[in-house]
Amino acid sequence: MRGAMETESFDYEALSLLYVEDDEESRRFLRAALEHKYPDLRVDVAGNGAEGLAMFQEHRHEIVITDINMPVLDGIRMSSEIRLLEPKTNIIVLTGNSDARNMQKSAALGIENYLLKPLKFLELIKVLNGMMIPKQIVGIPA
């Protein structure tokens, strides 16, 4: 069994992540933190659900992190469209409140990872490591 520190040795180059968040400061901060933690992971960002969906259609990211409340297209509707395109995409939903209705909508889409803001970075890292490491072990290509 691998320890937490050993996750750094995996090659994340074949994996890509899309972070969709309307708050520019949050986007910049989390992108920088993720690029520092996983230097070979491709990290793309979008400012709303419509931009995120367009970017996903072009790049087919393995992991999507999305806020729920955004202009143009919210995170739940964007996630629903992503599920239609790629049902096995790993999606993490971030929200500032624990609205039961949004949690139910997320669960109905098969989204198991629902994290509350303010985001605890180590909690996100645990979720991401759980998503990334099995793909590297079994050698599933991006």
Q: What is the terminal-to-terminal distance?
A: 24 Å
The fold-level CATH name is: Rossmann fold
Roughly how many Å is the radius of gyration? 14 Å
Any idea how many domains? Answer: 1
Looking at the overall shape, the CATH architecture is 3-Layer(aba) Sandwich
Secondary-structure map with pairings?
Layout (H helix, E strand, L loop, with lengths): L15 E5 L3 H14 L4 E5 L2 H11 L3 E5 L7 H11 L4 E6 L4 H9 L4 E4 L4 H18 L4
Parallel strand pairs: 1-2, 1-3, 3-4, 4-5
Helix pairs in contact: 2-3
Fold and architecture overview:
The protein is α/β, with parallel strands linked by helices. It has one domain (11-137): Response regulator (Rossmann fold, 3-Layer(aba) Sandwich). Helix content is 44%, strand content 18%. It contains 5 helices and 5 strands; from the N terminus they run βαβαβαβαβα. The chain has helices at 24-37, 49-59, 75-85, 100-108, 121-138, and strands at 16-20, 42-46, 63-67, 90-95, 113-116. Strands 2-1-3-4-5 form a 5-stranded parallel β-sheet, with helices on both faces. Helix 2 runs parallel beside helix 3. It starts with 15 loop residues before the first strand and ends with a helix. The model is unreliable at 1-9 and 137-142 (pLDDT under 50).
Brief description of this entry?
The protein is of the alpha/beta class. It is built from 5 helices and 5 strands.
Keywords:
5 helices; Rossmann fold; disordered N terminus; globular; alpha/beta
